[in-house]
Amino acid sequence: MRDRVLRLLAEVASGDASPRDALERLSWLPVEEIAANGDAPFARLDHHRSLRQGQPEVVFGPGKTPEQLLAICRR
Question: How far is CA 49 from CA 32, 44, 45, 54, 56, in A?
Answer without folding.
Answer: 12, 12, 9, 7, 6
